[in-house]
Amino acid sequence: xxxxxxxxLSYSLTLFILYLWVYNSVRRFLPLLDDVAQDFCRSLRxxxxxxxxxxxxxxxxxxxxxxxxxxxxxxxxxxxHVLYGERIGLFSSSPSEEAERFIWAVERMLATxxxxxxxxxxxxxxxxxxxxxxxATAWDHIFSHxxxxxxxxxxxxxxxxxxxxxxxxGQLMEAGQLSSELIKANITELMAGGVxxxxxxxxxxxxxxxxxxxxxxxxxxxxxxxxxxxxxxxxKALQGAPLLKGTxxxxxxxxxxxxxxxxxxxxxxxxxxxxxxxxxxxxxCLYPLGRSPEVFERPERFExxxxxxxxxxxxxFRSLAFGFGSRQxxxxxxxxNEMQLLLMHVIFLLQNFIFNCGQCGPWRFFEIIxxxxxxxxxxxx
Length: 381
Fold this sequence. Notes:
Layout: H1 2-7, H2 17-22, H3 26-51, H4 66-79, H5 81-84, H6 97-116, H7 121-127, H8 130-154, H9 167-175, H10 180-193, H11 196-211, H12 213-229, H13 234-239, H14 242-254, E1 260-263, E2 269-271, E3 274-276, E4 282-285, H15 286-290, H16 306-313, H17 332-348, H18 362-380
Helix pairs in contact: 3-4, 3-17, 4-10, 4-11, 6-8, 8-10, 11-14, 11-17, 12-14, 14-17
């Protein structure tokens, strides 16, 4: 927000959600996400076959999937096959210089954001602290990348596009209902905000399937059956595999990306005999909600099928990872389909692959994060 104020840029509007929900966009952007998901799986298969240990056809390897998942989210949703209708080649053997700069900018933005949540940004700005300088420089390049994409598409929109989908940006420009500045703000925030929020849940989903082989096999069986009946249609394949959607919901139940959902009631309300005046900040804490035995039976278990039963019983507001109503996450439909598609292809294209957990337990993971964070502060403060 401070960067936006200093650079005098427009704020995004939740009106952008009208495009994602009202326009029949899923059918159009799903094939774009599907292409990137298949490229990810081919890249993973090639890596295991060339770098893995063991006999041919039975190779295995231990790897950290986070960099590849980060690139998948960047290439598919954010960088911007869906948003801009173009690829920047993050899974090619030699990404372009612009692609590498964009990756650096998003990585720097994500790395420098957490400390700024607890340190006064204006003080850092006044002191010209390296932390703020890197953060601002990263955002400058992200906005520059978005503005260049807008300019490129302006020469195409209204001309002959050969019927091809020009991405969400192209559709907004063709509709002509939002100004150029608002389009830039919406697109850029969705572009930068849809990377780690997709890549991290995917990593946790693979982690949970790895340590729950029974769940992994049930999801695999349903995906294979659905794919055989879908006649090559990704949308039909997803519709026939509700356990995929359940896997994403179950992952976000246990590992929510956002800690809370916040609202200011517009009128006085009473919640469980508590009077809440209008304008009071009300927060729903997602982490304890998702792990409460009062809300979920045996909450410690990773069980995607619980959401099929939940849908049948009409239990609506137990899944709030994307928020709800007119102010829910603007990229919800893209993110949900993106994560489900990747899991489907990981299971289908790599159907002979079994995922197992390594020896690094959760406490060691926490220790590593602390070590990295301390090193980051010492280098940038």
